[in-house]
């Protein structure tokens, strides 16, 4: 019989013998069961983890890209706000500068008016003082001259003041000095003045 099995095995190499076939089938089922129960879940778990890692990386990259887009949009919005704010601040500075210039111009004009008014008041005061001084001097000279012409002393203060005031009023009106009569002129007036001396 051994010869018969050897002759069958040697005749068809593709057909195994029955014991090899049964042992091969049992081993195949055992290896398949082992792989299905123990190795396959581990392989599936590793594949799932790898798939999750890849998907997570892609998701994280997408999230990072979205976040970068949001940050870029916020940056652009802040940049636009900063540009608007700087333009507003420049406009406010320009307006404040114009306002300061206008205020300084108003102050300068007011100061110039005040200085002009003070100068005019001082000029008027000095004019009045000069007029008073001139009136006093002219009065003294006129009194002395009249005393010499008349030949008597005009030391009475009231009389002297009346005569000076009348003389100055007539000078301001353009009339000659005296009691309404023109002052003597020529050699007779001079001789009268000489007689008073």
Topology of this structure?
Blueprint: H1 2-11, H2 18-150, H3 157-173, H4 186-196
Protein architecture, described:
- There is one protein chain.
- Residues 177-197 have low confidence and may be disordered.
- The protein is built from 4 helices and no strands.
- The protein has helices spanning 2-11, 18-150, 157-173, 186-196.
- Helices cover 87% and strands 0% of the residues.
- With 197 residues, it is mainly α.
Largest sheet: none
Could you give the count of β-strands?
0
Mean pLDDT: 79
Radius of gyration: 68 Å
Write the element-wise H/E pattern from the N-terminal end onward.
HHHH
Coarse structural class: mainly alpha
Q: What is the share of helical residues?
A: over 70%
What share of residues are in beta strands? under 5%
Parts with pLDDT < 50 across at least 5 consecutive residues: 177-197
Number of helices: 4
Principal-axis shape: rod-shaped
Q: Give the CA-CA distance, first to last residue.
A: 201 Å
Features:
197 residues, mainly alpha, 4 helices, 0% strand, rod-shaped
Short description:
With about 200 residues, this protein is mainly α. It is about 85% helix and about 0% strand. It contains four helices and no strands.
């Amino acid at each position: 019989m051994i010869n018969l099995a050897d002759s069958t095995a040697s005749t068809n190499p593709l057909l195994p013998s029955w014991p090899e076939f049964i042992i091969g089938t049992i081993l195949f089922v055992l290896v398949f069961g082992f792989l299905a129960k123990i190795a396959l879940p581990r392989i599936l778990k590793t594949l799932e983890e790898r798939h999750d890692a890849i998907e997570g990386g892609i998701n994280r990259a997408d999230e990072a890209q979205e976040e970068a887009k949001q940050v870029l949009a916020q940056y652009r919005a802040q940049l636009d706000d900063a540009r608007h704010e700087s333009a507003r601040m420049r406009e406010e500075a320009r307006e404040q500068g114009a306002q300061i210039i206008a205020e300084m111009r108003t102050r300068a004009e007011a100061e110039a008016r005040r200085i002009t008014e003070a100068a005019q008041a001082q000029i008027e005061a000095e004019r009045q003082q000069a007029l008073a001084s001139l009136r006093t001097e002219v009065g003294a000279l006129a009194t002395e001259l009249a005393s010499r012409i008349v030949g008597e002393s005009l030391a009475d203060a009231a009389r002297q003041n009346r005569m000076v005031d009348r003389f100055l009023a007539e000078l301001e009106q353009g009339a000659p000095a005296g009691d309404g009569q023109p002052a003597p002129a020529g050699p007779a007036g001079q001789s009268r003045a000489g007689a008073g001396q």
